[in-house]
UniProtKB/TrEMBL annotation:
It is a peripheral membrane protein. This is ABC transporter. CDD domains: ABC_MalK_N. Its main location: membrane.
Length: 339
């Protein structure tokens, strides 16, 4: 069963099409990540599903019911914002209880639900504190607990980890994913961070300029990008794209290796001039140019750092290769032709 379906959704602000005909089905219990660059329409998409914004055209269905004319509260969705939106003058317990109070839930029932949500998110010991006495990660858990007590059909999360530092973010990411699996509530998670998207999403929907470019599992999107935008949005460094008889030829840096490291047939050999090298601890990235090809930007090769770089020097040409199975071809319009 699909929990959320959007059909041909359009939203126009003045002369900007923030969403330009997006159709998407989110399955019951799924963790779907909406990934795209800043300004591509992600927040607008969530706000329309939540009922906080009215679409210009198209339909939103929740559990098979068209909800276009249904109020945000009656839609059964809970949205967690980037800023968490906690009330600074209320304790954690009262912040979590807030949506229940406005629903007229009885006092003992509120107590039970707050305890249950706080227990699930590991914040039972913080119930008497106020938001300013909490770390960023703790605030995020309070915001999630407040969303959870409403027992929503769908969680809508808008970059909920963006205020956390890198280390806390990594642990909050896995905590959030485990939590979602435990409660099995359908979740739409917005981010512009591809690492977050790859690590968390059951599926990823890549959006650019209000248009959906591809929806698929992280590995499908990474290994078989539908177009050159998706290919160059995922991966660090992203897929190498070089001009090739009227289209583009793509290959990932980790598949572009010194010729002697690859054995067997079906290899494409390329002459690579290394201009600079970056040592990143676990890997080394070599940047440079290819003989006979125009690239959109520097071509990159990614090698495990433990591989000895005997004879490879900056400024010289070296024989590199890619397995033909790892080559991707894109047509004049950027769409993948063979994959
Ligand atoms: P970010 O990652 O930076 O938060 P986003 O992908 O969430 O961006 P949206 O906030 O959905 O993007 O905005 C999509 C486009 O619509 C942008 O060009 C934005 O300027 C425009 N936009 C959004 N809200 C409004 C509004 N209320 N009035 C006018 N334009 C708007």
């Amino acid at each position: 069963m699909a929990a959320v379906v959007v059909k041909d959704l359009r939203k126009v602000f003045g002369d900007v099409a923030a969403l330009d005909g997006v159709s998407l089905s989110v399955r019951d219990g799924e963790f779907l990540v909406l990934l795209g660059p800043s300004g591509c329409g992600k927040t607008t998409f969530l706000r329309i599903i939540a009922g906080l914004e009215r679409q210009t055209s198209g339909d939103v269905l929740i559990n098979d019911e068209i909800v276009n004319d249904i109020t945000p509260r009656a839609r059964g969705v809970a949205m967690v914002f980037q800023s968490y939106g906690l009330y600074p003058h209320l304790t954690v317990a009262n912040n979590i209880a807030f949506p229940l109070r406005t629903q007229g839930t009885t006092r003992p029932e509120i107590g039970r639900k707050v305890e249950w949500a706080a227990g699930l998110l590991g914040i039972d010991h913080l119930l008497h504190r106020r938001p300013r006495q909490l770390s960023g990660g703790e605030r995020q858990r309070v915001a999630l607990a407040r969303a959870l007590v409403r027992n929503p059909t769908v969680f809508l999360l808008d970059e909920p980890l963006s205020n956390l530092d890198a280390k806390l973010r990594a642990s909050a990411r896995s905590e959030l994913k485990q939590f979602q699996q435990k409660v099995a509530t359908t979740t739409i998670y917005v981010t512009h961070d591809q690492v977050e998207a790859m690590g968390m999403g059951d599926r990823i929907a890549v959006i650019d300029h209000g248009k959906l470019r591809q929806v698929g599992t992280p590995s499908a999107i990474y290994d078989h990008p539908a177009d050159d935008f998706v290919a160059s949005f995922l991966g660090t460094p992203p897929m190498n794209l070089v001009e090739h008889s009227g289209g583009l030829l793509g290959f990932r840096p980790e598949h572009f290796l010194p010729r002697e490291m690859l054995d067997g047939a079906a290899l494409s050999e390329l002459l690579f001039r290394i201009d600079r090298m970056e040592y990143l601890g676990s890997e080394r990235i070599l940047y440079g140019a290819l003989d006979g090809f125009q690239a959109k930007c520097d071509v990159a090769a990614k090698l495990p750092a433990h591989v000895p770089l005997s004879g490879i020097r900056a400024g010289e040409w070296h024989k590199f290769a890619v397995r033909e199975a790892e080559l991707r071809y894109f047509d004049r319009d950027g769409r993948c032709t063979v994959s």
